[in-house]
Structures are given as C-alpha cells and as structure tokens.
Write a structure and sequence with these properties.
Layout lengths: L13 E10 H14 L4 E6 L6 H15 L3 E7 L10 H7 L3 E5 L19 E5 L3 E5 L19 E6 L2 H17 L23 E8 L7 H11 L4 E6 L6 H12 L3 E7 L5 H8 L2 H6 L3 E5 L7 E5 L3 E5 L5 H5 L3 E7 L1 H18 E4 L1 H5 L3 H20 L8
Parallel strand pairs: 2-3, 3-4, 9-10, 10-11
Antiparallel strand pairs: 1-7, 1-8, 2-5, 5-6, 6-7, 8-14, 9-12, 11-15, 12-13, 13-14
Length: 395
C-alpha cells in the first residue's frame, strides 16, 4: 500500500554504525532536541505517549520551531497512549505546521473492541534520514510520579550510519499506512528523501520490528535464538514481564545448563494487574535457578537485555503478550562487545544501587491472599489475550 519495502523477518545486521546508549530522559531528551534543532529537511517522530507536561512541551516547542523554518515535521502518536494529544498539544503543533496523525484513535473508552490492544508502542525518531533514535522512552516527564528522587529507568540509542535507512523505511511505511485511512484529513504524501548511508562507526546492528503481518514474532525469535546459544550470562531488564511458555522454557533451560540468568523487573508498578500476574511466575523461575531482582526506588520502564559478550537489545518491546503478540514494536539488536559491556554495567549499577533480590524463601512467606491475587491476575491477562484471538498460540 505504501510503496516502501518491508523489513525482512530474519535479523539483517548492518555494519558501519555509531550507536550511543542513552539512559532515561536526562540523556535522551537533550539528544533528541539537539537533533531536531539541527534538522534541515525532515523529522519523523513516533511515540506511544506524548504528554502535555514540561517535557512534552519542550519537545513540542523544538518540533514547532523546525516546522516554522520549513522542515517537514511528522508526529504519529497512539490513539490510546496519547488519547488527549490530538485535541491538546497536537492541535497547537498542527497550527505551527507540524503534520500530526493518530494511530487507531479511541472511539469509546468504555467499549472493549477486539483490536483495541493492538497499539503503536514504538518509540522512534528519524531526522533527515541521517540520525535515528530507538528505545522505550515516551515523551513525558521522568519524575511525573512526584515521589522518587530517581528518574524512571529506561534506555534508548542514538544511531548514525547505514542502519538509519532501515529506520527511515520503517517510519515512512507506518506513516503511509495511517495516512491512507485519514478520510478527508489526509496529509500530503512525504517527499522522497535519500538516507545517508555513510559509514559512521564500526558497530554491527539490526532493526527488528513487530507487526501483525510478516513480522509477528521477529523480536521474540531474536530473543529465543540468543538465549538458546547463551553460554555465560543472560541479563534482562523488562518493565512488563509475562513471557509465554516457549520463552519461559528457554530461560529455565539456560539456567539449568549453567548459564547465569538474571531478571531485573519492576518493584514499583504502574500497572498492578501485570505486576501481580508476573509474580505468579516467580516460583517456577526461582526453582530453575533464575535470579530475580525488583527495582524499588523508581519506576522501571526498560526493555533491554545483554547476553554473553556481544549481544544486546534496546527497544520498546516488553516480554509480555501485549508487546509480543499485539502491538507494533521496534528494537535494535547490537552485536558489539563495547556496547554490550556498557549496557551490562548500567544494569549492574541499577541492581546494586536500587534493586532488591527476590529469593525462594521470600516467595514461601507470601500470604495466601497475595498468591491468590497473582493467580487471578495471570488468568485475567491470559483471558484478555484470548479475546484478541491470539490465545491459541502456545508462545
């Protein structure tokens, strides 16, 4: 429909890239704003949440300035995660010349539709087809809970090099898909812009997307392949962790063959249903030798992993049914020892400074009410997945 090529199902690694790891909004937002301020031709921004708070207004102001100086600025938000955006901050951006569209707008908050959980959960930005950002960080304040001295823990990467072409294709493809269903409010088709394919570094990386057509299991399969071949350590940090049977079996098999498997999960949760459902898996994982830590001092929103010495991923995809089976997601997979070690060290620091280890004896001390809550939460989540007609997949 769009005329842009789709990304192949298997990881296609591209060499010659420069990737910079960005931790939380304190590093991500200044880098994003600097790239927008330097834009000459085009800005694409995709996000699940675009809040009308100080951070959202800072990003919005940078986008508006770019549009006013003649840059083609395109913002695509999710209709559920950013349901107030179009009538609020998005309206003012449109008045400044920013093209704004919404992926699957909400038509009724109280009415459950089978496709309602199929969201645009990607967090991508591509500037002048030369600089790109991939990660899990929404456009909103890090400290919006008002209670923690620490920012929400999350990650993104800034990318220059040949891989940016793949990201440029990905954002243009979804922009065109959404554009075709606007019915009278359709923005003009984006003009062609050749991607900068120049060598910018020495890092080997691939872009993986998840959609509901050809790429339904690309991100999950990349995880499973890396876990299956792990020899030393698997370290995963994930905000919402509720893997299917295949993924759980892969982790426990790795632990049982002597691989150190470490999970850094939420201790403070903004979605209690998923939090309690996740706890229903702890007994099985701990028995198999998996180490579990809960990040306590702020919200953990990361979706990252490092495996052995040279495999890492950063992106928007949680390891739960909503990300792996329903939402549009994007992760970058990196095969680089220096990048992997940098991310591993960041996660180790977070574990040492702000996480609490969950042990088997802690589980045994849980009240019957807590265990019942976890069982019921897990059952309800699986029911919601089944309503979407993905429940028959044993994943």
């Amino acid at each position: 429909m769009s005329g842009f090529p789709l990304i192949a199902a298997a990881p296609e690694y591209v060499s010659g890239n420069q990737l910079d790891l960005l931790e939380s909004g304190g590093q991500y937002f200044p880098a994003l704003i600097a790239a927008i301020e330097a834009a000459l031709h085009e800005v694409h921004l995709e996000t699940y949440i675009f809040a009308n708070d100080p951070t959202g207004r800072r990003i919005g102001a940078a986008l508006a300035r770019a549009a006013r100086r003649g840059v083609a600025v395109r913002v695509l938000v999710d209709g559920f995660g950013a349901r107030e955006f179009a009538a609020g901050l998005g309206s003012s951006l449109a008045a400044d010349g920013v093209e704004v569209m919404t992926y699957r707008p909400e038509v009724g908050r109280t009415r459950f539709r089978r496709h309602r959980l199929r969201r645009l959960h990607r967090k991508l930005a591509v500037i002048d087809a030369a600089v790109a950002f991939v990660g899990g960080i929404n456009v909103l304040d890090d400290f919006d809970d008002g209670k923690s001295a620490l920012a929400r823990l999350d990650y993104a990467v800034r990318i220059e090099g040949p891989l940016v072409e793949r990201l440029h294709e990905a954002v243009r493809h979804v922009w065109q898909l959404v554009r075709w269903v606007q019915l009278g409010r359709r923005p003009p088709a984006p003009t062609a812009l050749l991607a900068d394919k120049a060598i910018r570094g020495a890092t080997l990386a691939a872009l993986l997307i998840r959609d509901n057509l050809r790429h339904r299991h690309d991100i999950e399969n990349a995880y499973l392949d890396a876990i299956a071949t792990a020899q030393q350590q698997i370290l995963i940090s994930c905000a919402y962790f509720l893997p299917g049977r295949n993924f759980r079996n892969a982790l426990t098999s790795a632990a049982q063959r002597g691989v150190q498997v470490i999970l850094l999960l939420q201790g403070r949760s903004d979605h209690p249903l998923l939090h309690y459902a996740t706890k229903s898996l702890y007994d099985h994982l701990l028995t198999a030798g998996v180490q579990i830590f809960e990040y306590e001092y702020a919200y953990l929103h990361a979706k990252v992993a490092v495996i052995d010495q040279d495999w890492a991923t950063v992106g928007s995809s949680n390891i739960d049914p909503f990300s792996l089976l329903m939402a549009r997601e994007a992760n970058v997979v990196v095969r680089d020892a220096a990048f992997t070690e940098n991310l591993r060290n960041r996660l180790r620091t977070a574990i040492g400074a702000a996480a609490c280890e969950i042990r088997a004896e802690d589980q045994r001390r849980r009240s019957w009410l807590g265990r019942l809550a976890s069982t019921l939460a897990y059952s309800l989540v699986r029911l919601l997945v089944g309503v979407t007609r993905y429940g028959s997949e044993k994943r």
